[in-house]
Every structure is written in C-alpha cells, then in structure tokens.
Design a protein that fits this description.
eight-stranded parallel β-barrel, 25 strands, alpha/beta, binds phosphoenolpyruvate, binds magnesium ion, globular
C-alpha cells in the first residue's frame, strides 16, 4: 500500500488532516504526519528532518506520496528528499495537490491498492467535487489580455500591486513572495511596471529581488497553470500583509526609501570597550577563495559535488537560522530564509550546471562565476539597501564554494582600516577580526556584556553597542567616531569634536603607558595582600599579548572559540596542541582552562542541539557537557595531558547544582584513567543557586571563579545580549554583590580561593570593592591589567572590607557607583 505523509506548518493541522483522512481510509492506512517543528513543544514551523522521519515511517515499496501546505513546507519536503539516500528518493513523490482534499482522496485510493501514480492523480483531482459544486473561483483584478510579453501567455491571470514596504521588495519580503509563489502548480512571473524591469520568474529570489521594486513602485504578477487562481489569491493576501514585514500603520507610502541614519550628530548606545576611534565606516565582506582548478573532466562528478555542497550548506544555514531564531526571534532569523532560497535558486544553479556540462568547468568555477554574475546584478541596483544584499548572496555563495574546495568557510572581514559597523557580531565574527584594520566597532544591537563586546575588549578595540537599526544605514566610507567610554557614536563629527576626541585619545594613551610601566610587577595591596591578576583569552594566539600586558597567568581560557567557525569538533590532539601552546607561551605561569561553554549565544551548529525557547536557560555550559559526556571527556583528556607538564587548572561553566558538579567530576575521573596529572579543579559561579550553596560546593572543589556577566543577567533577569535591558545588567547591583559575598563566605568554610573573571574584574573602579568582598584573583581582558594592578596597589584590604559592607547596604547600582567614586584614587 502506498504510504502518505502530511506536511504542514501546524502540528494541529497535520494531525487534524490525518484524522480526517483515516476516517475515510480506515485505521490501517500508512499515513504519517510532519507538522510544526517538534510536535507539541513547537507546534508551528516545518523541519526537513521531521519530514524525512515521517517518510521513513510511512515507507512502502509501493512508494510514498507527500502532501504539503505552502511555502517552507515545500522547501522542507524537498530538503528531506535531499537528505535521503539517493536510491530511496525515486520512491517518493512530492505532490502539489491540495492538502485536505488531496489527503482524503489519496488515502482512499491507497487503501484500494492504487499505484503511486494513481494515488497522486486522485489527490490532484481532489478539488474537482468542490469546483463542480461551487464553480471555479473568478480571480480579480484580472485585466483581460494583459499577458506578460515573452512570458506565460495570453491566458495568464494578472494582479497589480503597489509596494508599501519601506525598503521595497528586498531580500526578506521577496523571499516571502517566492516562497508563496512556489507553493502552487502555476507558472508565475513578475514585472516592475514603474521601472519597466522584468518579467522575472517568481520562483527565483534573485530574479524577483533584482527587479528593484522600491517602495511606491507598481508591480504586475502574472500566473498561468492549474493553480493560477489560488496563487494570485495567495499573493494578494501576502501583499495585503506587506509581505509579512512590519510597516508602520498609516504611514503614507514614501516615493523613495527613507534613510533613517542621521546625517550628522551623536547616536547613543552602550559603552562596550573603552577607547576612542575615528575613521571611515566599514562593513564586513567575505574574502575571495582561491579556486585553483577551472576545468574538470567528469561533469557528472562535478554536478554531484555541487549538489552535495549546496545540500550541506542548506543544512548548515538551517541550523544557523534556528540558533538566531532562538536567540533573537523569528524576525531576525527571517534573513536566513532568503539565504535558503538563494541555495535553491535556479537562476544561480542552472547557469552553474550549464557551465559544468556544456563548458567543462569545475563545479567551484561554475558556481563562483554564477554567484559573481548574479551579485553584479544586485550591485547594479539603484536602491542602496537592495545593493547591500549582494553581500548576503556572496556570503552564502562562499559557504558553498568553501565546501566544494574542502576548506573552512572564510571569515567576514573589512578590507581597509576603519570603524566596523554591523548589525551585531557573533563571537566567531569578532574573534576573526584584524585589530590592525578594525579601529573601532559600532553595532546596532547587543549589550555591553555580550560576547562580542567581551572580545572587543580583549582585542583592545573601542566599541559601542546597541545603537539601533538606523546605524546600519550609514554610508560606507562616511566618517564616524566611536567613544567606547561614553557609549556614543559621532556621525560626521565636526572638526571641533574631532579635535577634542583626538586630544582625549592621546591623554588615554599616555595614562595607559604610565600604567603599563608597572604592569609587570606583582599586585600587592598596601597592607601586603598579594592578588593574582590574570588574563582572559579565547585561544593560544592571545597569550603572548596577555603576558606582554603583565598577566600573572591566564584566569579564563574560553575554549569554545576553538570549537567555533568550523564544521566539526576539534579532536583530542588538536585541543591538546592548543592548550599546550598556551601553556608554553605562559612560561610557568598558571593556565586556567574552562571546559566548553557552548549553547545559548554560542551555538555549535554541528552538535545539532534542539531548538530552545530560552537558550540562556537551556542546555549550555556544563549541562551540555553532561548531556554529551564524550565531548567533555575528550576535552578533559587533552587538558590532563598538558597538565602533566605545566601548571594547569580546570573549571566547569554554568554549574547550578552539586549533582552537576559531581557528574562533571565523574567524567574527569574517567579521563584521568587515561591521562592522570595534578590539576586544580574549580567551577564558575554564574548562577545564583551556585552562589547561595557555595558552602556545599566548596567542599568538592579547589576554587571558585565568579562569572559576573552571567551572574548579573541571571540575578537581574536581563539578557546580557539585549540592548533594551542593558541598563539593568549592572554587575554593581547590590543583589549581585550579595551573591559574591555569599560565594566568598561559602569558599572560606573550606579554605578555598575565589576569583572573578567576568567583566567587572576589568573595572579598576570596582577593584577595592571586589577585594573588600574577599576576592583574591581577578582575570580580565589584557588591556585592563595595568590599570587594575595599579588599583590593587592603591588598596588597603581593611578599608576595602568596610567599603564592601557599605556597598552591600546600598539599594541600587547607582548608589554603589557613587560610593566607589568617592574612594578611587587617581
Ligand atoms: C561570565 O559569565 O562572567 C563569564 C566570564 O563567562 P562568559 O562571559 O564567557 O559567559
Ligand atoms: Mg559565563
């Protein structure tokens, strides 16, 4: 019996349709569903893997018929086929029949033992009864005789629409258009009546978006074929929803896309990394890859390689999409839908295949040329916003190309010195930046303790974050100034502002130079208490600079950066080499390695973690290590091998309960069976529960390191990456200080030491307070070391303890700041 799969955006619709179909076909039909993302938990969305699994469950040697609702259901079903073994694909038919009527008709025919073709034919005819009863719908407005020239014929149904989206039919709304149009059995074309461009194939994102349909432009959609009427209907409904983009209600449609970027003035964001930078606006570009081989002998093998590379990139982009949707919401993630459409766009793929088969080109050369040609079309558009989408196309194109060439995808970079302006930077993006070119960073989104901000500080690059979306409209090459102390961005600064900022930058540099002179001595308080001042790093390459800046050791090696920006996990040898390189560069100073802290805003796509509603409260840090103990054990073995020859400490991130700590220690014991070595073992205290049960945890560790970035976000219930609550995420809040005190009290019960490795440790104004609370190790980005050592030397721990008591009596972070302001010595 032919199997049937129902694919819908909605879990409930899929189940409902299946229930109805079973009513007709009986309980023993092979009927499976793939609705929503992962059943009841995420009832809306589509997922290729779920579709593939449903096909497997419905599998029959007679074949499987797949019925889908619209848009990404179709894409996911196609992708599910790509994921299946080649031999199995031939037995699966994706059918364009209407979902409900088709499912009912198909089930009955399957039950009667019909062939796959017969079942599909019945499904396609599912609407016949309804059409006969009601009569075929008459689409309007159908301008008679307005066929598209050179297009789809006299009988086409047409629809005229005026674009109201501020940026026109740019990548995102165009993607919605293409997704909708692709859901029907109809040939659909679009023309831009205002500019005269087109007709363009509605199934091609590149073709639709490069029509240059700006706000106020009139477009004409023409459709022909069995489902032309339904398609026109759906496109009209989509246009009425402004292509699913938020357009300000009641706003008159401007004739030209508005530029919201201020021409001149000061935009206020959040201070993320101190310092001043003045320079030209620069955006990230993807560097070109060396292709090497232009021609090839075996076109079939090249075409297959292209197919595999695009399919693998589709899966990777889907994971990226899920990670961004989980972190920033569906609206932000929608740009990846455009990326997915690029990857399936015949306007890109067909010329590449043609070049492979007809001109003997290698897959890499054919694909690269196709991307270049299409990107050049985008480059030629008048609308600046649309022109900028060429970068999206090149970035997706480069991912496929990298796979074809068997190299890592290239990191985005800027081509000339200036101020990098970006929507947001992932930790991986920031890690790949060249500090020699990136004079400053200005981002539209993100908070001051986001990982991108943390990295900017580590690299010593002045940064301002959370400036708002208008920043993205700033023209490349225009002049801006970043003040990373105040959180201000000066757009086209006046010569007076430039002069003032330059002289302040010189004064800052001089103060830093003076502090650096004392940076290599040890940090001992006025009353003789030694404090270890260490550096935070993301990889061995940063260690020499940290030593140079005066670090007494490494207090936080964020190992997740070794795992990011790549397709697979680094193996034990690779990890050991990285940790050994760091230890060697430290020349006997201690190296504190934190085990993998992935998840939340640092997802690793190749781990295939399930989508989470609240990833910061989900499987991250040690939770992931316990869920995937083989990853943790491999890492611990690599660390132990280095610990055999160097002073190494290890700590587990995000520990919340004693059971988690015990679980992690068990994995460590297993690793020790293979490679035992002396190792101090600690945990990060970044969850209030850990701070409040520090006494119990201290009995089972050698030290604590407080991660004030996460501790603050969890204590104040304010996402560290969200600029809208950045005002709340202040580590000086007395609630956070009370948790630091609780941690120290718990540690003292068992004679353990406590450090701080969150961003608060880098704030020299807070040094006396932290010492007063009992902290004895501070770890920070290297540029802050000199000033913090100075602050330690100026502190008396007795006075500092009294200061800490007063801070704990304060009601607000503001009151604590006022208190510190009175104590800081020049
Ligand atoms: C912290 O949370 O303070 C910390 C140091 O860890 P990360 O910033 O890497 O989350
Ligand atoms: Mg943390």
């Amino acid at each position: 019996m032919v199997g049937i799969v129902i694919v819908s955006h909605s879990y409930r619709i899929a189940e409902g349709v299946a229930e109805l179909a079973r009513e007709m076909g009986g309980p023993d039909v092979r009927l499976e569903t793939a609705g929503g993302l992962d059943t009841q938990e995420h009832p809306i969305g589509t997922d290729a893997v779920l579709v593939m699994q449903a096909i497997e469950r419905a599998w029959s040697d007679d074949g499987v018929l797949v019925l889908m609702d619209l848009g990404s259901a179709v894409l996911s079903a196609e992708m599910a086929l790509d994921l299946m073994p080649e031999g199995a694909r031939a037995g699966v038919l994706l059918c364009e029949a209407p979902l409900v009527e088709g499912a009912v008709a198909a089930t009955v025919t399957a039950k009667m033992g019909g062939s796959l073709e017969a079942v599909a034919a019945e499904a396609r005819g599912g609407l016949a009864g309804k059409i006969a009863h009601l009569g075929a719908p008459v689409p309007e407005p159908a301008a008679p005789g307005s066929a598209v020239p050179g297009g789809i014929g006299e009988e086409a149904l047409t629809l005229r629409l005026t674009i109201r989206n501020p940026h026109g039919l740019h990548a995102r709304p165009a993607a919605r258009f293409v997704q909708t149009a692709s859901g029907f059995d109809a040939k659909i074309e679009v023309r831009n009546l205002t500019s005269g461009r087109g007709p363009a194939d509605a199934a091609s994102l590149n073709a639709v978006a490069t029509l240059g349909a700006a706000v106020g432009h009139e477009i004409e959609v023409a459709a022909a074929g069995p489902q032309a009427a339904e398609a026109i209907h759906a496109i009209r409904a989509l246009a009425a929803r402004n292509f699913d983009e938020t357009v300000e209600a009641g706003a008159p449609a401007p004739v030209e896309a508005p530029s919201a970027a201020p021409a001149q003035g000061v935009v206020r964001g959040f201070a993320a990394s101190p310092g001043i930078a003045i320079g030209a606006v620069r955006r990230c570009h993807v560097p070109p890859l060396e292709i090497g081989r232009d021609d090839a002998d075996d076109p079939d093998a090249e075409a297959a390689a292209l197919e595999t590379a695009t399919a693998a990139t589709v899966v990777a982009v889907q994971h990226q999409r899920e990670a961004v949707a989980a972190r920033a919401g569906e609206t932000e993630a929608a740009i990846f839908d455009a990326h997915l459409l690029f990857l399936r766009d015949e306007a890109l793929l067909a010329p590449a295949r043609h070049a492979i088969h007809e001109e003997g080109r290698s897959a890499a050369r054919a694909w690269s040329d196709s991307i270049d040609r299409t990107a050049a079309m985008w480059d030629g558009l008048e609308d600046e916003y649309l022109r900028a989408r060429a970068a999206d196309l090149r970035s997706v194109g480069a991912q496929v190309l990298a796979r074809l060439l068997g190299v890592e995808p290239p990191q985005p970079r800027i081509d000339a010195a200036g101020v990098l302006v970006a929507a947001d930077l992932t930790p991986a993006d920031t890690a790949g930046l060249d500090p020699a070119l990136v004079l400053g960073i200005a981002t539209a989104h993100g908070g001051p303790t986001s990982h991108a901000a943390v990295l900017a500080r580590a690299l010593g690059i002045p940064a301002v974050v959370g400036l708002g979306g208008a920043t993205l409209e700033l023209e490349e090459g225009s002049t801006v100034a970043v003040d990373g102390r105040s959180g201000e961005l000066y757009v086209d600064p006046s010569s007076a502002d430039v002069a003032r900022l330059e002289s302040e930058a010189i004064a800052l540099a001089e103060a830093r130079a003076i502090a650096r002179e004392g940076a290599h001595g040890s940090a001992v308080t006025r009353d003789g208490v030694a404090v270890e001042i260490a550096a935070n790093v993301g990889g061995p390459a940063e260690v020499p600079a940290a030593v140079e800046a005066g670090a007494d050791g490494i207090g936080l090696f964020r190992t997740e950066f070794l795992f990011m920006g790549r397709d697979r996990m680094p193996d034990e040898e690779e990890q050991e080499a990285a940790y050994r390189a760091a230890a060697l560069a430290l020349a006997g100073r201690p190296l504190l390695i934190r085990t993998l802290d992935a998840g939340a805003d640092k997802p690793l796509p190749y781990l295939g973690q399930a989508r989470e509603e609240n990833p910061f409260l989900g499987v991250r840090g040690v939770r992931l290590g316990l869920e995937r103990p083989e990853i943790l054990e491999t890492q611990l073995r690599a660390i132990l091998r280095v610990a055999a020859d160097h002073p190494v400490r290890v700590m587990f991130p995000m520990v919340t309960t004693r059971d988690e700590l015990r679980g992690a220690r068990k994995v460590l014991d297993r690793a020790r069976a293979a490679a035992d070595a002396p190792l101090e073992v600690g945990i990060m205290v970044e969850v209030p529960a850990a701070a409040l049960t520090a006494g119990a945890l201290a009995a089972e560790v050698d030290f604590f390191s407080i991660g004030t970035n996460d501790l603050t976000q969890y204590t104040l219930a304010a996402d560290r990456g969200n600029e809208h609550v950045a005002g709340l995420t202040d580590a000086l809040h007395p609630g956070v200080l009370a948790l630091i005190r609780a941690t120290v009290d718990g540690a003292r019960l068992h004679g353990r030491w406590v450090g701080v490795c969150g961003e608060l440790a880098a704030d020299a104004a807070a040094t006396p307070l932290l010492l007063g609370l009992g902290v004895r190790e501070l770890s920070m980005s290297a540029p802050a070391i000199a000033a913090v050592k100075q602050a330690v030397r100026a502190t008396d721990t007795g006075e500092a303890a009294a200061l800490a008591d007063r801070a704990l009596d304060c009601a607000t972070a503001g009151e604590v700041r006022a208190l510190l302001g009175g104590l800081i010595r020049p």
